[in-house]
Structure formats: structure tokens, C-alpha cells
Amino acid sequence: MSSGGSFLKKTTKQFQILIYSCILLFLSPIVLVFVLLPLFFIRSFVKLCAKCFGPKDFRMIGQLCGVHAVDKIYTEPIGNLLVSLYLEGETDLDLLKSRFISTVIEKRRACGKLQYPELRQYVTDFMGYSFWTLDKTFNFENHFQFFKTETVIDDTEVQKLRQEFVRKPWRVKQPLWEFIIIEKFQRLEKNERMEDSSRKQTHVVLFRAHHCLLDGYSIVNILVEDMANLNLDKVIAKPAASSRKSANQKQHFYSETFFNKLSFPLRALYEFSSNLTKEQDVNAWHELNTKWTRTGTFTFDDTIPVDYIKEIKRFYAVSFTTVLLAGICAGIRRGMELTDAVVPKFIDCVAVFPVLAHPKKLTNHLTHCIIRLPTGMDDPKQRLLAIEARLEKLKNSTLPTLNFYMVKLIGDLPRGFISKIVTNNFPATVAFSNFPAPNQLWTVNGTDVYKIQFEAGPMLGLGIGYACLSYNGKISLFTGVDSKIQNSEKISKNLIQLFKEELDLLSQISTNP
């Protein structure tokens, strides 16, 4: 009876996918002729008008960046990015500033044009589209702020300041980046009190920018490759190849074989239709039509060794990302149990991934996918292997590529239409991003950067966010929980600890199988 019911359910789902595929196939030429082509001509007309009637160096913002440009940049931004560099010992801050100016702001291409002109431009609206406009009064000094305090502060106070800066609106008609240098900072070891510390006073350098200007990889590129003069390919670890695939194939979401290229349209149609038939992700932490507050509780940790995760990865023959997602899945499961919320069979997680061949310029070159995390599974090992299977299936599907171009298509729309789309709730509970920094100790002007942390403003239409950054053998983990979620403060404090407990559990199983 159970077998017959399962067969009927699968047959019904396949029939639904077939119906959706037929409808989409029928609508495709209509959308192309009556939607996409008019949009192309309208966008081209606006570009022509900007060239004829706009100021010099007036340039339409690229498609992937245009999605973020509709943010309330000058009043209530939710798309800010913040990278924190913790420097050990004394450093010449004026030399640090002059080096960024010479190696990044003034960097030029072979043709003589600026490599990063956007650092001198701000966002404006022209005929309903977002444009980069030259700041005619651009001054380096406006983008280097020395934050001085009367007394020496520790990391707890710095974290509070970081959360203020990541939400801070931008000055009108000024470029969307700045450095904030905190001078009086004291590095403390765990359980060490300020009055007991004999360490030298150090500095914290914050680099703040808006997401419409760049993505995480662009930040790493300008800070590491340009400013520190390090080769990214040598100092950032590449994902190891499995026995089933070559290293080159492993880095591609969608293998570019002739057959895959030929079958892409049909596979994309089927997989997109299949997504439409999936059960919605609705749970105690992600209810339909929830109005997120865009504020919440944030927690940080940088004590997880990269090698510890790699040991788990190697034992279970899974990917590094799978281990991170397993920690997230278990953390949310246990977090729900601790707050007496009903644990769902699954939660959906929006995972952000870099796309290969990132341009050597300031831009957004990312894609995203929704991976279904099995929170309903009791066994940690089974959860881990289920996530690996789903992630591998996702990587080999057309969805990462399809989502990349769909976001570009949305970026082609006028600002008003983009705003309507991106301000709606995302159909998932969690957002996750992970990107690497140098896998060795990084030195800036002779000063060691002993810690790097990354964080972002409130997530678009999501209640929970995770951001991971790998640097010098440690994982820096950031979590944020929207205050709309009941017990958000308690949840946020527990998520990282529960994440680490899951890793410990997987490690124990591996040593005592």
C-alpha cells in the first residue's frame, strides 16, 4: 500500500512537471517577443539618451550590480559589506592609506584608463535606471576615517561598532566605499581581562562598501592582490578534486561538454519546472508573508580550525561546503528544539557561490542556489551524506547557470520593477555564503593581519544569515538572526555553539565508527 502510494505520488509529480514544462515552452516565445525584446530596446534607448544628454562618464550600472543598486543607499541601506582587518602591533596608518591610493584608486589599465573608476563615482537615477556618475569633488580624505575613543576598547566593543557601520547610510553624491581605522584597540586572549593584558595596542581597519559596487571576491582582489601584492592563485586554496572528477570540472557548476551545451535548454526547462512543484519552505522561523525588521542579533566566532573541517571532509569523502552546511543544518535543528519550535522535515538554504573567471574589476560575479537541508533527519552522518548528495546534484544541474542569467535579466529591468522583486521575502529560511582569504598570515606594510572577519547588512527577505571566511588556517563565522523571529537573541548566541557541537559529533563518529 505504501509502495503504491509512493509510486502514485511520484507519477503525479512527474505529470505536474510535464504540464509546467509545456506551459513554459508555450510562453517562452511570447515572453521573448513581448517582454525581453522591448526591455532590450528600452534599455538601449536609455543608454543612448544618457550618452547624448547625460554628464561625462555617465555609465549604466551592470546587470548583476543593478539588482543591489535599488537599495535605499542614502537613507536605510541593507546591502552594505564590511571586512575587518585586525593588525598585530604598531603600523604606519598614513603609509597604509597612501598604499591603497597608489595601488588601488590610482591603478590604471594598459590603455591608461582607471582600473576601478567606480571608486570615484556614485549611484544616481536616470530615466528609471541606475547609473554611475562621476564625483567631481572626489577627495581621498573623505573616505578615510580615524575613529578615536577616549579609552582602549576590546573586541566586544569593536563588534558593536562594526554593526553600527554595516547599517550606516552613505553620504549623498559620494562614492560607496570607505576605510574606518580604530586606533585604540587591545587584543585579548580568551578569558583575559583588559587590566591583566600586557600586549601592545593594536589597530582594527574596517573596509566598508556597498554590494552594488562589488562582491566579496572583488574585495579580496583589491586588498590582497593589488594592495598586498600577493598572487590570489597561490595564497588562496583551491577545492581538491575528487576521484570522480578532475579539479577543473569540480570547480564548474555545470560541466561544459558538448552534450550539456546541446541539452541545456531542455534540462533547464525540466529542472526549473521541477522546482515549481516543490513543497514550500514554511516553518516556525520562516512563515509566509513575514515582514522582516532588518535588525537583529549578530554573533561572531573565529576559533574553528580549517584543518579540523578538512579532517571531517576527508573521512566522509564529502566537500568542504557540505561540512559547513551540515553544521548549519544541525544548528538550526537544535536551535528550534531549544526554543520549543516544531522542527520541520527540511529547511531551504540560499547558498551563494562565486562564478569562475571573475573579472579583474569591481563587480558582482556570483550565482545562488537553494539547497534543501534535511533538518528532520536524526542521524548526523545521514544528514551530512544527504547534504553532499543534494549539493553534488545541484552543482551538476543547470540551476546555478540559469539563476546567474535570471539575476542578470532582473538587473535589466527599471529600478521600480527590480525593487518590487527584491524586497519580497525570499522563499527560504537561511542564507549562506563562504569565500576564502589568504591561507597564510598576511602582512600589510610589515604588520601582521592576525584576524579577518566579514559581515553583511540585513539579508534581503531572509530571517537568518551565515557568512564564513577562511583565513590563515581558521574559519571566521558570522551569524545574524532577524528580531522578528521569537527568541532571536537566544537563538543567535546558540547557533555558532551548536554548529561547533555538530562538527565535534561528526569528528567523534569518525574516530569511533
Low-confidence stretches: 191-198, 239-255
Query: Helical stretch count?
Result: 14
The main pleated sheet reads as: 6 strands, mixed
String of helices and strands:
HEHEHEEEHEEHHHHEHHEEHHHEEEEEH
| Computed structural class | alpha+beta
Radius of gyration using CA atoms only: 24 Å
Strand order of the largest sheet: 5-6-7-2-13-12
Report the helical percentage: 40-55%
The N- to C-terminal Cα distance equals 36 Å
Give the oligomeric state: single chain
Estimated share of beta-strand residues: 15-25%
Number of DSSP E strands = 15
* Outline: globular
Overview of the structural elements:
The protein has 14 helices and 15 strands. Strand 3 (121-126) and strand 4 form a beta hairpin. The protein has a six-stranded mixed sheet, with helices on both faces. Helix 3 (93-105) crosses helix 5, helix 10 packs across helix 11 (380-395) and helix 10 crosses helix 14 (488-511). It has 513 residues and is an alpha+beta fold. It is globular.
Strands, helices and their partners?
Blueprint lengths: L1 H52 L5 E2 L2 H4 L13 E9 L4 H13 L15 E6 L2 E6 L9 E4 L7 H13 L9 E9 L16 E9 L5 H12 L4 H4 L11 H5 L6 H19 L19 E10 H11 L3 H19 L8 E8 L11 E8 L6 H16 L3 H13 L3 H8 L7 E7 L5 E3 L2 E10 L7 E8 L2 E9 L5 H24 L2
Helix pairs in contact: 1-8, 3-5, 9-10, 9-14, 10-11, 10-14
Entry summary:
The chain is α+β, with helices and mostly antiparallel strands. It has helices spanning 2-53, 63-66, 93-105, 155-167, 216-227, 232-235, 247-251, 258-276, 306-316, 320-338, 380-395, 399-411, 415-422, 488-511, and strands at residues 59-60, 80-88, 121-126, 129-134, 144-147, 177-185, 202-210, 296-305, 347-354, 366-373, 430-436, 442-444, 447-456, 464-471, 474-482.
